[in-house]
Specification:
The complex is a heterodimer of chains A (about 240) and B (about 500). Chain A is α/β, with parallel strands linked by helices. Chain A has 14 helices and eight strands. In chain A, the strands form two sheets. Chain A has a four-stranded parallel sheet with strand order 2-1-3-4, sandwiched between helices. Chain A is globular, with a radius of gyration of 18 Å. Chain B is built from 23 helices and twelve strands. Chain B has two domains: about 290 residues, NagB/RpiA/CoA transferase-like (Rossmann fold, 3-Layer(aba) Sandwich); about 60 residues, no CATH class. In chain B, strands 1-10-7-4-2-3 form a six-stranded parallel sheet, sandwiched between helices. Chain B is of the alpha/beta class. Classes of the chains: A alpha/beta (about 240), B alpha/beta (about 500). At the A-B interface, helix 1, helix 2, strand 2, helix 3 and helix 4 of A face helix 1, helix 15, helix 18, helix 19 and helix 20 of B.
Amino acid sequence: MKVALFVTCLNDTMFPSTGQAVVRLLSRLGVDVDFPSAQTCCGQMHVNSGYVPEAIPVVRTFVDAFTGYDAVVAPSGSCVASARQQHQLVARRSGDRALVRAVEAISPHVYELSEFLVDVLGVVDVGAYFPHSVTLHPTCHSSRLLEVGDRPERLLRAVRGITMVDLPAADECCGFGGTFALKNPDVSVAMGSDKARHVRESGAEVLVAGDNSCLMHIGGLLTREKAGIRVMHLAEILAATEAVA
Amino acid sequence: MTSGRTINTATFLGIPPFPIAAREALADSQLRGNLRHATHTIRTKRARVAAELDDWEQLRVAAADIKDDVLGNMGHYLEQLEESLTRAGASVHWARDGAEANRIVIDIARRHRVEEVVKVKSMATGEIGLNAALEEAGISVWETDLAELIVQLGNDLPSHILVPAIHRNRSEVREIFLREMGKVGMPAEADLSDEPAELAGAARRHLREKFLRAKVAVSGANFAVADTGTLVVVESEGNGRMCLTLPEVLISVVGIEKIVPTWTDLEVFLQLLPRSATGERMNPYTSTWTGVTVGDGPQEVHVVLLDNGRTKVLADEVGRQALRCIRCSACLNVCPVYERVGGHAYGSIYPGPIGSILTPMLRGVGTDEATDALPFASSLCGACYEVCPVLINIPEVLVHLREKVVDSHRGGVPGTLQAAMTGASWTLGASRRLALLQRVAGLSGRLLGRRGLIGRMPPPLSRWTDARDVPAPPRESFRGWWARTDGDRKNAGPPPHTPRKGGEQV
């Protein structure tokens, strides 16, 4: 099986340790993952902001980078949802039938990390060790658009040493919402502050999620509040084999 | 009897665009408390009663199918409805827009020489501003739904589809009743407390004389059955039943999307609507009437079929699903944005997620800033779609309308966001350009970041950094790391301290 990592533009630029964790995790599970360097972004920011024509060249880079792979795995529920549910719309808008066909061929093989581990590799215990208390923010796009269900939770519960604690009102949006965070900063922060409060109430040392975009927002509030709670991507906990400092 | 009364002049016109109106609403901690309590209570009840039905998902699909059949064959069903209504003795009127509908209602009221009408709670009449039009024509309007009465007496605006006074708590309601009821009819007793039962008692006494006196009633309809000509009103308080049965003349203003093809289709909607709306298995009062029944109820029945932008929505292939809406408010009650800002910030009788799509489509985008802001008043979390009883994919329509808004502004001087989007499209159109940007970001991160974090920044970045830190960009991107280490397969040593010079691809 030829497996490619779609690291996503945000992780590539801002959170390379998440991509490195995916590589470490997958190699430990015996997957020889490739990083096609032609990749850039899923184009979701453009589509969700109303700039569909501007998303066409971006979707083209996606198709060029990932055509020919059996599976594309990404550490982001939101970007995977874009690839699976929005690329078709963008491709049709381009009027380029070849692009439409290429998107049709790739989209079904794009997996969010927890889906890839549980559904494609068939593993739940990935051999991780993480002796900390952790609470999970399920993220709206993973749960409502991809319907990953309890996959992240199952993967985390199988981690040795971990203590999972419940996050109050876990299914509520954190308020990031892409450009929403900038267009409606006051509402976004009001939602995020409630999420941050729930995270503090959980008593966990670490907040985990499958999307660094949500974590950047919630984490940005937590550090401003000097809450002393660390945010980590799911991949980084699953890749861990020793306690973090 | 009607002398000295105040006219409700409150209007959605002039409410600032959503981001500004929302900021003002967020500052009102009393409002946030009221909203949080109310939305969470209804949300929990809805989830519980929806889960009771094994076939809930099939009901949603059936409802969407029935409505799509109507939307796809609107001409046929409208003619059938007109014929059924006429056969049953009702007079059918066609209104292209709000002004036409208002004129029809005013003409009927004038023909009967009445100075007042009683009203059943109705979204369609709110949409077209019927109350203000009647008042202007010298005809007093009495809202008889408890929450609508609170809004009307308080010279206020509704902030929720189902619970229009959701932004008021009971002590505020008490004050409004004490201050205003006497000006327009039976006053509240001076020792009125803020106990809900006492408040309801005061409203009942105040309204009773209006029910008994009124010759003309105005209603909307939750459903209009095409094959029988039956109109249906679903309510909780019995005020609707009073208005629909006591007066001699009944005028119902009905949006054309309220049609269901057959009487048996109601079976689907009467399971979905109460559970989705109030979280009840069945609402207390469901009134159905078919034209005129001699010697029983109103002897003159008018039905005003209202377009007011609906055929325009129908022409939008993605957006037309919004016309399936049965005004249950489930999307409002689960929306994290609505929960925090309430309904007024949406500047429309239709607030919340459904309002964010319905209002811009009914009004048309590209004309005013407040309307164009609505499709962006969402984090696209999808909670609305998850509960919608008629499967309106609200996030899909929001994104669709965002594109329409953006397109309507193309061609002028590009704003900050448009310039950023064009730039991002160029950067992300080739990996070498992204790699270059990442090296610049890595460099700037070291200049800006203290302890790996960027604190407060000037506008427009302040929109993020006023409340949120942002991590400083790392000195090496993922692609830089991969190129240097071949994905950790070669021992390449520590990352470089400074980015490599030039724009070479990494």
